[in-house]
Specification:
mainly alpha, 2 strands, Four Helix Bundle (Hemerythrin (Met), subunit A), 291 residues, single chain, disordered C terminus, Helix Hairpins
Length: 291
Amino acid sequence: MAHREQTPLQQKFYQVIFGTETSQGKWFDLCLIAIILASVVVIMLDSIASLDVKYGNLFLYMEWVFTIMFTLEYGARIWCAPNRKAYIFSLYGVVDLLALLPTYLSLLVPQTAPLLIIRLLRILRIFRVLRLLTLLSEANELAGALQRSGRKIFVFFSLVIIIATIFGCLLYVIEGPGNGFDDIPTSVYWAIVTITTVGYGDVTPMTTAGRAVSAVGMLVGYAIIAVPTGILTAEMTGAQRIRKMRAVLESRNCTNCAAVEPDAHAHYCRFCGTGLPRPGHAPEPDSDMID
């Protein structure tokens, strides 16, 4: 969708609300983050029964004030955005909308009010304010590693589910409903809790054979619990190795002073000013050497 024409007022609002280049834009985002944190604190305090009895009405009033402020801000963002559709369906746009919905939904379903804690995700805007580009690049690197290892992790978790189902069925047959293993889903739940080494203890085997199977499940859990970490680490290590190799391939030696130039976009040596060969190309022969 092409960008639409903006009025001068919309351009001014856009620079303040979406931009961080100006002091007004930075202060706007910092004030917004402070309000977000205040609203999250109110939600957390309201969940405490003793405080809710004393200050419940005050918390409700403050929550509606925060919600109205966020609603106006969300509407202003849509109004001044050059590409409204791009903002609405962007990560920030979706989070901004989700931060509003629980308050309005609580009018119909009061149990949804605690979902307002999702407003904490709006703190992601601090990355824009502080310009933590290095952290963002590392986050992108981690996301890329997760994407590349997605199939391996999927296969691994499928195997874990199969193992948990087998252990659950074994305990259902060995223990039975008399010892708390009322059905196969409950037994599979016990197997997952055991294999992941969580161990809630709400369902426990009573027979010797059941405890022996449980011991095997615990050992299996310790054996496989580090597999996803290993897969992800291997992907990240491989990406770093490829990046280093690419940097080495792109580095060039000056034909005059033999200095190494790592910048693939440089045209001249930073030390002597001699023209550099293009990355991946052999250096041009020196005219003085051609007779």
